[in-house]
């Protein structure tokens, strides 16, 4: 039995939607992107949505819109994929890493300790699809104590009047906190539509806008769209219409737009996303039911009255285990044709960030999580028989390597 880690969900509806794009004579940014933006706006309850070609592009766009410059700081968790921090660097600022809590969400007390007059934004990460407590983070950045030391990065931030809150929701489409979507809780929610995500466009991302008054999110949508098209006032689809060739370049933008052929994949999946999410929940809950009897299995966050996850990852932690034993267990499973993963190597352990002065010793929970973590396969196509096979081999492998 061969079990991949996270294959995309491609059915006849996806193929039909992509084929429709191919046969339409238009495959870059156009009507499919517009339809996906509208669909995501409704699903996420966002004020507007801009589709782009990756999560990273979306983060860079919004941080550049904020007006970051050298010397500015953005707080991020140490336990995430490198794109969270690298988008800050690409926008010209410095990432300030803080540790996580045992539930894998960012430690809000550590955020408070890290805030200085240089802090312009905070990017918490919904790791595995578990939402952070954005209500408490908003309460913190709106407090008199924090506002008294706040210095805006630009006229846009002066208009906002506080630190910008961007959620790294690469994993959390469909998650809720106190019956609200993530896009309803933050200023900007950025989704990933990468190949292994719950909803995919092969490569892609989406910026969900929720800026408070006095911002006009319809106008901001237009501004962000222009920035994603090299600062051009018209996309290629609009320019291609008869007599509509004339355009202007009004800003120093970037080439971050999403093509229609990519949007078509996600558009077909979005129409049945509730079903796909339900199937991921089935897998997630079966793992938990089978593993809860083992004292060494630390289960990931389960749904509560307060929050629901998006079931993007099943980040199992094992205790007791050493890093070497964990790696042997991953290899044992690989020999049984079961693909697993580790989410993530903490950023302070990566060469780039070590060379910048970050030390893993400053992030003990991130490190402890890393050495114990194994992400099990989770996707709608996974059958109960396959789940049982994974768990049986995981249990057998654990006792083999821990003897």
TrEMBL record:
UniProt-listed Enzyme Commission number(s): 2.6.1.87
InterPro entries: DegT/StrS_aminotransferase, PyrdxlP-dep_Trfase, PyrdxlP-dep_Trfase_major, PyrdxlP-dep_Trfase_small
Record's keyword terms, sorted: Aminotransferase, Transferase
Enzyme class (EC, first level): transferase
UniProt-recorded name of the protein: UDP-4-amino-4-deoxy-L-arabinose--oxoglutarate aminotransferase
Keyword DNA-binding listed: no
Species per Swiss-Prot/TrEMBL record: bioreactor metagenome
GO MF, one annotated term: UDP-4-amino-4-deoxy-L-arabinose aminotransferase
Gene3D superfamilies: Aspartate Aminotransferase, domain 1, Type I PLP-dependent aspartate aminotransferase-like (Major domain)
Lineage, opening ranks: unclassified sequences, metagenomes, ecological metagenomes
Gene Ontology terms: biological process: polysaccharide biosynthetic process
């Amino acid at each position: 039995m061969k079990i991949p880690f996270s294959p995309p969900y491609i059915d006849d509806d996806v193929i039909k939607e992509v084929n429709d794009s191919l046969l339409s004579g238009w495959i870059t940014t156009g009507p499919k992107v517009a339809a996906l933006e509208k669909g995501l706006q409704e699903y996420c309850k966002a004020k507007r949505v801009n589709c782009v070609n990756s999560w990273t592009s979306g983060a860079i766009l919004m941080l550049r819109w904020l007006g970051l410059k050298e010397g500015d700081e953005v707080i991020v968790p140490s336990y995430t994929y490198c794109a969270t921090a690298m988008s800050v660097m690409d926008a010209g600022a410095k990432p300030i890493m803080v540790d996580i809590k045992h539930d894998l969400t960012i430690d809000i007390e550590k955020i408070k300790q890290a805030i200085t007059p240089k802090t312009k934004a905070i990017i918490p990460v919904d790791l595995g699809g578990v939402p952070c407590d954005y209500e408490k983070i908003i309460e913190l950045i709106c407090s008199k104590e924090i506002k008294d030391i706040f210095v805006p990065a630009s006229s846009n931030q002066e208009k906002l009047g506080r630190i910008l809150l961007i959620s790294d929701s690469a994993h959390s489409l469909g998650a809720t906190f106190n019956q609200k979507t993530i896009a309803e809780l933050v200023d900007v929610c950025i989704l990933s539509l990468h190949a292994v995500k719950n909803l995919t466009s092969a490569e892609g991302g989406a910026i969900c806008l929720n800026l408070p008054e006095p911002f006009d999110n319809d106008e901001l949508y237009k501004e962000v769209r222009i920035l994603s098209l090299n600062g051009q006032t018209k996309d290629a689809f609009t320019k291609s219409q008869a007599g509509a060739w004339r355009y202007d370049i009004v800003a120093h933008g970037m080439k971050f737009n999403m093509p229609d052929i990519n949007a078509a994949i996600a558009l077909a999946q979005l129409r049945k996303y509730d079903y796909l999410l339900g199937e991921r929940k089935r897998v997630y809950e079966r793992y938990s039911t089978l593993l809860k009897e083992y004292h060494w299995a630390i289960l990931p966050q389960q749904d509560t009255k307060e929050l629901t996850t998006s079931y993007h990852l099943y980040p199992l932690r094992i205790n007791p285990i050493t890093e070497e034993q964990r790696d042997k267990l991953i290899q044992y499973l690989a020999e049984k044709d079961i693909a697993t993963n580790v989410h993530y190597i903490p950023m302070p352990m990566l060469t780039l960030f070590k060379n910048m002065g970050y030390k893993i010793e400053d992030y003990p929970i991130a490190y402890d999580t890393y050495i114990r973590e194994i992400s099990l396969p989770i996707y709608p196509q996974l059958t109960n028989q396959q789940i049982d096979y994974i768990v049986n081999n995981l249990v057998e492998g654990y006792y083999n390597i821990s003897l």
